[in-house]
Specification:
Enolase-like, domain 1; EC 1.8.1.4; 24% strand; 12 helices; FAD/NAD-bd_sf; five-stranded parallel β-sheet; 22 strands; FAD/NAD(P)-binding domain; alpha/beta
């Protein structure tokens, strides 16, 4: 096998494996280097997302919701159930099987597209050379015309709650509990904290979420954030804002967490398990030789321009290791863009229309700018909202919590943002994302025919409400 390639990708998460497949489809001789090993010591593709992130967490979210629904919500439909139990090891096994199937699927896709899969740790040297250290310790050097860095991210550690992978775990460890903890602490009320907290809350844990910020979901539209907090609190999550963790002490099989509350008073809580999820940071350890020519910015991300090119000729970087939201789909599309640009196409990515989703139940999803951001930019705007409580389809499904919010420019009527908490929010917000990609106005959405009865009608009604034309809810009087 020749060790000279048109493209070498380091990392096979959603950014890396997609970049490798697209490059190979475009006729480029491509290799993808991956360091991840499974519990059996075998190399596996898929990165954080498929192995210990998006996919396994969704498997547990769906399993735990089905349990909660059967135990607590079936009676409203006239279905009586007795003796509903959760077999946690079986739930975890199902999750593991899904991961195995999907990571194996990447290997099949690599074969089908002619991507050379190499397991080992990749390091970028000068002049687009990549040193690969195999799991056996042996090294070899690959040469490439182009290198794509897609090394991903890892959980941020905090010294006040050191991970011991037993009582104190990170997001990876929280996917592996073999039983339901009676008392569960979560540090961080971000996407990961809320999703994992929801899983174990549904299965019977008393969950306390400690968040240092004084605003809940501060990056989200605050009307939607407040509604989400209300819904999750009603479900049983004890969300405490302005709580800064100052220490933790493990004794036996429990941990006592010390924190200052919103009034500055010291508090203590004892848990059986503690999940630390205060964010993620780019993974660059051992990735770059000093003379590689690639620079990091002040936050440790690989510096790239709008097209994901680094400062070194022929070297690109995509996904969690570069600026922008740490989202699998954002990384994948960057991977496609870079592969196509290497092949001579003029592809660009629209960073203004990247959906963001929290997979609690109900889901929380957004695309475009929040009302707070638009207000700060000084642009005139109109807002339309529609509650799922007024949706016939949502009532039929017993899913009436939440609302759709659409924001449009007051002068041009162009849709600037959509924010949803409610049933199938992720799929509904994608409808608005498609509209935004084509420069739609709120009126355009309002003029479209939506099927009845569907959850999508809530999007239609919110678009109509932008101009006070909603049919199935009273319109706010224009001031």
């Amino acid at each position: 096998m020749s060790d000279k390639f048109d493209v070498v990708v380091i990392g096979s998460g959603p950014a890396g494996y997609v970049a490798a497949i697209r490059a190979a489809q475009l006729g480029l001789k491509t290799a993808c280097v991956e360091k991840w090993q499974n519990s059996e010591g075998k190399g596996v593709n898929g990165g954080t997302c498929l192995n210990v992130g998006c996919i396994p967490s969704k498997a547990l979210l769906d399993s735990s919701y089905k349990y909660h629904e059967a135990k607590d919500d079936f009676k409203v439909h006239g279905i009586s159930t007795k003796g509903i139990e959760i077999d946690v090891p079986s739930m975890i096994q199902r999750k593991d099987n899904i991961v195995k199937q999907l990571t194996g699927g990447i290997s099949s896709l690599f074969k089908a597209n002619g991507v050379t899969s190499i397991f080992g740790t990749g390091k970028l040297l000068a002049n687009r050379k990549v040193e690969v250290t195999g799991h056996d310790g042996k090294t070899k050097t690959l040469e490439a015309d182009n290198v794509i860095l897609a090394s991903g991210s890892k959980p941020i550690d905090i010294p006040v709650a050191k991970i011991d992978n037993d009582v104190i775990v990170d997001s990876t460890g929280a996917l592996e509990f073999d039983s339901v903890p009676k008392r569960l602490g979560v540090i961080g009320a971000g996407v990961i904290g809320l999703e994992l907290g929801s899983v174990w809350n549904r299965l019977g844990s008393d969950v306390v979420v400690l968040e240092a910020m004084d605003k809940f979901l501060s990056i989200m539209d605050q009307q939607i954030a407040k509604e989400t907090q209300k819904i999750l609190t009603k479900q049983g999550l004890d969300i405490r804002l302005s709580c800064r963790v100052t220490g933790s002490e493990v004794k036996g099989k429990e941990v006592t967490v010390t924190f200052t509350d919103k009034d500055g008073k010291e508090q203590k809580e004892t848990f059986d398990k503690l999940i630390v999820c205060v964010g993620r940071r780019p993974y660059t350890e051992g990735l770059l030789a000093e003379d590689s020519g690639v620079n990091l910015d002040e936050r440790g991300f690989i510096y790239v321009n709008d097209l994901c090119a680094t400062g070194a000729p022929g070297v690109w970087a995509v996904g969690d290791v570069v600026r922008g939201p740490m989202l699998a789909h954002k990384g994948s599309e960057e991977g496609v863009m870079v592969a196509e640009r290497i092949a001579g196409q003029k592809t660009v990515m629209n960073y203004d229309v990247v959906p963001n989703v929290i997979y609690t139940h109900p889901e929380v999803a957004s695309v475009g700018r929040t009302e707070e951001q638009i207000k700060a930019d000084g642009e005139p705007y109109n807002v339309g909202t529609f509650p799922f409580a007024a949706s016939g389809r949502a009532m039929a499904a017993n899913e009436t919590g939440g609302l759709v919010k659409i924001i449009a420019h007051a002068d041009t009527d162009r849709i600037l943002g959509a924010h949803i908490v409610g049933p199938s929010a992720a799929d509904l917000v994608q409808q608005v994302a498609i509209a935004m990609e084509f420069g739609s106005s709120a009126e355009d959405l309002g003029l479209m025919v939506f099927g009845h009865p569907t959850l999508s009608e809530a999007v239609h009604e919110a678009a109509l409400a932008v101009h006070g034309h909603a049919i199935h809810v009273a319109n706010k009087k224009k001031r």
